[in-house]
Amino acid sequence: MTQTTAAPPQAVRTAPASVRDRAVKRRRVLDILDASGKDALLLTTHTALTWYLDGSRVHISLAGDPIAALLVDRSGDHLVTFNNEAGRIAAEELPEGVALHSVPWYGNLHQAAAAVGSVPGGSLLAEADAATELRAARQQLLPAESARYAGLSADVAAIMTDVLSTARPETTEFELASALAARVVAAGAEPLVLLCNGSSRSGFRHPLATHAPLGRRAMAVICARRDGLVANITRWVRFDAGTPEERDAESRIAAVEADIFDATVPGARLDRIFTEIQAAYTRHGFGADQWEQHHQGGPAGYAGRDPRVTAAATDTVVPGQAFTWNPSGPGVKIEDTVQLTENGLQVLTVDPRWPATTVNGLDRPATLEL
């Protein structure tokens, strides 16, 4: 195994990491080590790596495993990658103060990373064994990453406005999804999820695009990742005034979301918010089983949901935490990425050009009518 120490001068991207934010994250991880009595922690997943490195890209295939592993011990941080990735990592993704090591492209990243550091052979804490503690460490977003998240979210919201404003009834789902994908990539982000359904497929809540035309109304969903952070958004467009039943359902699903927002306060437990979600569906006329037809969202950030909220999720909400709740009913859904600030929830995926309606004092997206 070799160690790389300097980045080549032709770098066209620099690692987005904030020195101040990374120092806080390192302290959080050292606290996990202290509590566990271990010498080092090995990080191996996209979520943990991009969080700890503060936005470094550690993927090649969106469907593949990370091309790096990282050992954190009390002496420093050691990132191990394959030899054919090391040059790019050094040039464009390596935060200050992280030692970079490489192994042959056919080598074992995890074994190599476990062997570096100041205590070779010392007691090692695997990421899976610290999953709960690491999730808690990710909850409160720090200043620089919060700014990056707000920028990504605003970009995604603007992309939705630009692309859906040009849609027509004869536009196909694939055409709409491809236009969204092109804009997401042009913004320097990765389209992790792109969903679209026209009126003929409005019954599907996770609609992968087809060649079907949009017809009289359509839904589009983007989950886009940039610098490790994932912004999630859903928007609707229609080409007529809508039916009374549609407008009523849109109003009621926004009321469900408003109840979820009201429950998302510092100190609240996720399982208790989940109970409130279930009650909100009944309260607003959707029926007691609607929460079972689609996941309801949860905390957001370096994973699409971190975690999805269920009755088994007992994490406690903290200030600075991001969320994407996504209540849905037959033919309706509402979804934005928000952050809990000292002034309450702030919607991040917002574009002032998109039509909005006020629900409980907060501007919420309406259906765009063309």
UniProtKB/TrEMBL annotation:
What are the Peptidase M24 domain coordinates in residue numbering?
Answer: 157-342
Which organism is this entry from?
A: Pseudarthrobacter chlorophenolicus (strain ATCC 700700 / DSM 12829 / CIP 107037 / JCM 12360 / KCTC 9906 / NCIMB 13794 / A6)
**UniProt-listed InterPro entries:** Creatinase/aminopeptidase-like, Pept_M24, Peptidase_M24B
Which Pfam families does the entry link to?
Answer: Peptidase_M24
Q: Specify the domain of life of the species encoding this protein.
A: Bacteria
Gene3D superfamilies recorded: Creatinase/methionine aminopeptidase superfamily
Protein name stated in the entry: Peptidase M24 domain-containing protein
Q: Which CDD domains match?
A: APP_MetAP
